[in-house]
Amino acid sequence: MTKAKEGSPAATNRTAVERKSDRELLVTRTFDAPARIVFEAWSKPELFQRWWIPKSVELTLLSCDMDVRTGGTYRLVFSHPASDQPMAFFGTYREVIPQKRIVWTNEESDEGAVTTVTFEEDAGKTRVTLHERYPTTAALDEALAGSAEGLPEQFAQLDALLATGW
Amino acid sequence: MVHYQARLDATFAALSDVTRRGVLEQLGGSDASISDLAQRFHMSLTGMKKHVSVLEQAGLVTTEKVGRVRTCRLGRRRLEEEAAWIERHHQLWSARFDALDKLVETLKRKEKADDQGKRR
After folding, report:
1. Is the pTM for the entire model greater than 0.80?
2. A89 touches chain B (CB under 8 A)
């Protein structure tokens, strides 16, 4: 059975987001390419930075250091028009299995999630499953409380912005 | 924070059941009495009362008794909080993955062109 009543078909069968438990978020999407290519786009900094930051969020990437191997670290530094200080996102790759799986920590806060992304290839397509696990329900509660304040309006224009491409 | 956590636990417990999710979906369309819901989900009145009470304790549903009929409706604020959270993640990841999709297409085409170039 299809969920015809929920928006356009493109919106429903592309990126699926599901809350798996009080501490976990699951995001899935299938890409029409072998795992080798999807993994490459995820693990090479020069490619990664071409898709990671939604254009609508007004973040400018100042630097992007990624050492994608088990035990390696990453550090992304952004500037935002509303802030004088640059913001850094950083952490450690706990496990990297080329074309199969990447696990990393988010260490900018004590309550950062551990993210696991897996790549499963089937008949030339790759199913990407991203799993975020927060250390405590409180950490996820804060994320929840933060987003309850309202959605940024600029997200509405996302599709149009992304369609213009890079 | 502990209170909030308990509330969240109750929400997830409430949402873990397929009938209760169905009830929320129904109530999303229109308010309904417990007997309406029992009928719609082919369930005894007592069974449906239990489900509604779990949803009510989680703050997902409110009920009001008028005469002999208990009417159920969605507990708005709470659902909106949950929905906003999911929606925000959905927008972020859709945006990222749409861009990744394009990049992957480009890489694929490039690889193909390189292959053909080599063969020539």
Report:
1. no
2. no
